[in-house]
């Protein structure tokens, strides 16, 4: 049996995918991504809702933003964060689905 591989993925693409997975490999960052699945939120709202410090949330959001997992927009004095696009939401949902499947949950 021979394998036919599609064209090799470009190095820059693999580097970016690595950065996405690195950014998603932290428990609190995943909590923030899960929280933002339900809609946009300010640092203060995330801090209060997830019972984290503001400096921790800001640090985690910076990492998520650098990996293009979340985006921000200014509304008055506040920065509002949201999931960058549906690809990230789908990736997150697929990982949750895979995890529950492996544990025999439905």
TrEMBL record:
Keywords: DNA-binding, Transcription, Transcription regulation. Residues 9-103 form the HTH arsR-type domain. GO terms for molecular function: DNA binding; DNA-binding transcription factor activity. The keyword Nucleotide-binding does not apply. Pfam families: HTH_5. This is Transcriptional regulator. The lineage of its organism: Bacteria, Bacillati, Bacillota, Bacilli, Bacillales.
